[in-house]
């Protein structure tokens, strides 16, 4: 049944046309239609000025069965959060507190804390518990505007536990209204039992985990943490090439803690995205540009860990498509709210509000190879959009620290409305 | 009617005893009672372990008429936001956008924008409009945990318009459940019509505005923006001394943009608080310490303006009582959420979660001379508290960017509950 979504003060289309991603100055173009309307079923059938919708209907060229008045508010595409670790168990508030007292993320990891704290909790948890905890977070993400979310495994680090995590992701995708994209990340860290047998763990991933994940069709992507203290580019390449043989496409945690050449590797293996990039080198930037890799920036992590931010302006100036994501996880960034990420992107990385919105929608969708279907409000794409309690879309970052989302729509259906 | 608030996983009393404020290491002491309960009427009648409440009742030593089970959640004192400008009209999103493109706050002010943009809008607005806009913001502040809020005039800059603003503040205090503390700030900026007659504007404040404000009993405090491009310490001293003659106690916007000796002035005139302090000098710190002035830090403003943050750790180390507030205003910090301010205080100023909470409660109350009544959960104080959806109070900053408030209680009554 076609629905006219009408009385939209600003309809932020993020107009992309045939482009799958926006780079450079195009990231500032939001394609705003004032006093607009949109005809939707599961997909968008028509977008334009409100008056035109009625003219077309009078001329018999457009029709709808019902109208939904959004009350003169702003409509934007739903956020595509292309990098999260929301399926986990336990809390790391103690470690958070230690860090504020001066301990570094690397020191905590070296002492057996960090990711391993969560790994121990996840191994001890059953599927139900993991589904329950993740559901709460994902509902919160949805209420803050996320309509598509990527979720990584990587807190299991045994074949059984990685499969458990990915099965939880599959259940969440069935049970929640959000669109969920699963990524296998057995190479999130070396488990302590393999600390002195690194190559054996790599082979476990390649010979046991990847075949099992592929056999059950549990993941679209394979991610590797390429950094000092984690996986070397060489180790990562072995894993990602094997993943590709099993049909899992590569993405990377790249150069977060040090410039280890991870961006260069991302380009070399044809990764869909290179994420973090706090310490990306000039050579890494050049490589990403040549390969057309999406740079997924996660300013909430630099904020939490009190690290220097990724060079967003340099990446944009270099013509690299920049996306923004939460990195939501219990250690280095416990935040599922994409509006918060947009605020940090503007205030701490110098992005413009328009660039941040493009990065959180169209370019996020590109980082998940879905920008032909998601990330902008154009005919033929899915009707995933937010109604915001704003007069001007730029107020989303101007007025920060609060949730501006009034309604969340996915596939042409309203899946959440804020209480009045 | 006495009510037992019970099943509190952590009752964060912020125990102060006879102290009106916490300094130094005491700022890390939250006085947490695990598995606690609290007997409240308008004030707190009893606080302690849950089991003890029942023992005392059995012994006939404590009684209550009803029980309120908070479901094993965390209870903290309500936030006291000691510095806001929430009564205004219009939006400054355009100026916000210009700043992200490189314009400075000073450049925008020099071009006639900045505070003057809001002054023009406020002069054109009537009381109803101002009440309506401020009510929306204050309800949002309340829902994010603020139970007491200071509000300044300063966007009128004529006698009539300053009185209009303060009458709006009085109406808000009557109509809303929050506790509201009014401050007169005719010395927020020089209005353009007095640009070349500074001393005449000072005299207008001293001879016309202050007597009128005092005659109607519209304000408790007088604030002056002492900085480059605003009021000199000498001008401010004339205003604040006159204000004191009319019974308005002094507080200051001090050394936000440059070290102009405003902290020293605050100490000299016996100001209740010196606020901002991004550029406070060593002499200023020494002066504040001697005078016992509360330093009200506003990290949301440094965040928004992309300025260096106030030296929170140096101020705490010097034994100065540090409070945190939003500075909520349409120009330099459009944020009414104290939880966001706590996050910025920890991540960007290096405060500990415990210090931030003390700064936002007891020390905020001290900055409004109300810490004998507010800011901690102790017998005799008002029952202003929050129920938080947390297992551990430190998670309030660990899990950032979302609202953790489930219930807001003021004077022993629940004034807001989050929808489930």
Task: Tell me what the structure shows.
- 2 copies of one chain form a homodimer.
- The first copy, chain A, is globular and about 75 Å long.
- The first copy, chain A, has 2 domains: 3-77 and 375-417, Urease, subunit C, domain 1; 79-366, Alpha-Beta Barrel (TIM Barrel).
- Chain A has 420 residues and is of the alpha/beta class.
- The longest helix of chain A has 19 residues, at 198-216.
- The two termini of chain A are 27 Å apart.
- Chain A is built from 16 helices and 15 strands.
- Chain A has helices at 50-58, 93-100, 105-110, 115-124, 127-143, 159-175, 198-216, 233-245, 262-268, 282-291, 299-305, 312-317, 338-349, 353-360, 362-367, 395-398; strands at 3-12, 32-40, 44-49, 66-77, 79-81, 146-152, 179-187, 221-226, 249-254, 273-276, 294-297, 322-324, 385-388, 405-410, 413-417.
- In chain A, the strands form 2 sheets. Chain A has an 8-stranded parallel β-sheet with strand order 5-6-7-8-9-10-11-12.
- The interface between A and B is large, with 38 and 38 residues.
């Amino acid at each position: 049944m076609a629905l006219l979504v009408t009385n939209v003060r600003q309809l932020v289309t993020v107009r992309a046309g045939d482009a799958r991603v926006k780079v450079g100055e195009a990231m500032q173009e939001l394609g705003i239609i004032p006093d607009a309307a949109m005809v939707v079923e599961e997909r968008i059938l028509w977008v334009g000025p409100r008056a035109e919708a009625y003219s077309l209907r009078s001329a018999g060229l457009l029709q709808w069965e019902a109208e939904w008045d959004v009350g003169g508010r702003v409509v934007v595409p739903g956020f595509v959060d292309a990098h999260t670790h929301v399926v986990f168990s336990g809390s790391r508030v103690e470690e958070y507190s230690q860090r504020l007292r001066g301990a570094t993320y690397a020191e905590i990891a070296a002492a057996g804390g960090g990711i391993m704290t969560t790994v121990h909790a996840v191994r001890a948890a059953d599927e139900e518990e993991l589904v329950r905890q993740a559901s709460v977070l994902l509902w919160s993400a949805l209420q803050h505007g996320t309509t598509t979310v990527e979720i990584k495994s990587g807190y299991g680090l045994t074949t059984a536990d990685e499969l458990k995590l990915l099965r939880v992701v599959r259940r969440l995708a069935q049970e929640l209204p959000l669109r969920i994209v699963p990524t296998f990340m057995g190479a999130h860290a070396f488990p302590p039992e393999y600390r002195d047998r690194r190559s054996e763990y790599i082979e476990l991933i390649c010979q046991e985990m990847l075949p099992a994940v592929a056999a059950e069709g549990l993941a679209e992507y394979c991610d590797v943490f390429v950094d000092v203290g984690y996986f070397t580019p060489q180790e990562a390449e072995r894993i990602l090439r094997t993943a590709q043989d099993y049909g899992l496409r590569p993405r990377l945690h790249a150069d977060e803690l040090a410039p280890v050449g991870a961006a260069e590797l991302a380009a070399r293996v044809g990764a869909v995205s290179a994420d973090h990039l706090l310490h990306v080198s000039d050579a890494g930037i050049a490589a990403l540009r040549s390969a057309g890799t999406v740079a997924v920036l996660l300013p909430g992590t630099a904020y939490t860990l009190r690290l220097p931010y990724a060079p967003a302006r340099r990446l944009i100036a270099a013509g690299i498509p920049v996306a923004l994501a939460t990195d939501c996880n219990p250690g280095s960034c416990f935040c599922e709210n994409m509006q918060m990420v947009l605020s940090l992107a503007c205030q701490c990385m110098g992005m413009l509000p328009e660039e941040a919105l493009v990065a959180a929608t169209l370019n996020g969708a590109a980082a998940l190879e879905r920008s032909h279907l998601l990330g902008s409000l154009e005919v033929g794409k899915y009707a995933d959009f937010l109604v915001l309690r704003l007069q001007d879309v730029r107020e989303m970052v101007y007025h920060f620290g609060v949730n501006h989302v009034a309604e969340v729509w996915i596939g042409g259906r309203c899946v959440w409305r804020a209480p009045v």
